[in-house]
């Protein structure tokens, strides 16, 4: 019997758990800030929680863009979809929302994850939402066509297709296409929607998102 194999397997498992914990702990400061904000201003149930990566975090005009709707911003920059799954209890659960708007997956693909992995994480996120709030909706904002990441456009398109198909199977899930309206007539990203880094959006880019998201937030 080769004793090395089980020992090596245990070491690999331990390393995997350690790395996963380290990745999760990376966002603890952000999560603690959200917890403190909820303690200072108790969450109002039945609203809309926006969660995900920096494109959500940097949406500073969220309340004005959706005036008349109680919205909460729980974006934390640089995060991946699995991070929103991991911190669901701190990000979403306290607010008992009627709708969760999610933007994540962009950073995942850029880090080397496959579209299928992003889909699996999206499924895990939806499972968390529907288990806690069976009637709540999950609205997924499509991965945007950032000029600085255009070389992974095939992965972007594939991920959007997979998640759109997943959403079509459950009326509580909505796929919001922002990819198409952010392209020009030649199918290229429109730089006028982005700030200097060609990754994050300016006011014009958020205006596109607002028009796409607004119909989904109607009661």
Explain how this protein is built.
By secondary structure, the protein is an alpha/beta fold. Helices cover 47% and strands 11% of the residues. The protein contains 10 helices and 5 strands. It has a 5-stranded parallel beta sheet. Helix 8 packs parallel to helix 9. The longest helix has 22 residues. The N terminus is likely disordered.
Task: Please count the beta strands (DSSP E, at least 2 residues each).
Answer: 5
Give the % helix. 40-55%
Across the major sheet, the strand order is 2-1-3-4-5
- Average pLDDT, to the nearest integer? 91
Radius of gyration: 18 Å
If helices are DSSP runs of H or I spanning 4 or more residues, what is the number of helices? 10
**Helix-strand pattern:** HHEHHEHHEHHEHEH
For this entry, give a set of tags.
single chain; 219 residues; alpha/beta; 10 helices; 5 strands; globular; disordered N terminus
Reconstruct the topology from this structure:
Layout lengths: L3 H22 L2 H13 L7 E5 L1 H4 L4 H4 L5 E5 L5 H6 L1 H4 L7 E5 L2 H5 L4 H18 L4 E5 L11 H15 L5 E4 L26 H11 L6
Parallel strand pairs: 1-2, 1-3, 3-4, 4-5
Offer a quick outline of the entry.
The protein has helices at residues 4-25, 28-40, 54-57, 62-65, 81-86, 88-91, 106-110, 115-132, 153-167, 203-213, and strands at residues 48-52, 71-75, 99-103, 137-141, 173-176. It is α/β, with parallel strands linked by helices and 219 residues long.
């Amino acid at each position: 019997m080769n004793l090395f194999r089980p020992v090596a397997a245990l070491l690999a498992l331990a390393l995997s758990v350690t790395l996963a914990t380290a990745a999760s702990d990376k966002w603890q400061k952000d999560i603690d800030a959200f917890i403190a904000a909820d303690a200072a201003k108790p969450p109002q149930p039945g609203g809309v929680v926006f969660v995900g990566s920096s494109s959500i975090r940097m949406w500073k005009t969220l309340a004005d863009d959706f005036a008349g709707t109680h919205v909460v911003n729980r974006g934390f920059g640089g995060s991946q979809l699995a991070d929103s799954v991991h911190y669901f209890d701190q990000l979403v659960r306290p607010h008992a929302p009627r709708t969760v708007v999610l933007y994540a997956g962009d950073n995942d693909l850029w880090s080397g994850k496959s579209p299928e992995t992003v889909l699996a994480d999206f499924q895990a996120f939806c499972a968390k939402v529907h288990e806690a709030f069976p009637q709540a909706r999950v609205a997924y904002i499509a991965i945007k066509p950032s000029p600085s990441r255009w070389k992974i456009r095939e992965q972007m398109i594939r991920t959007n297709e997979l998640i759109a198909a997943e959403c079509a199977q459950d009326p509580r899930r909505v796929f919001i296409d922002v990819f198409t309206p952010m392209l020009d007539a030649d199918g290229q990203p429109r730089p006028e929607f982005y700030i200097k880094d060609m990754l994050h959006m300016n006011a014009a880019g958020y205006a596109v998102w607002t028009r796409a998201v607004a119909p989904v937030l109607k009661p």
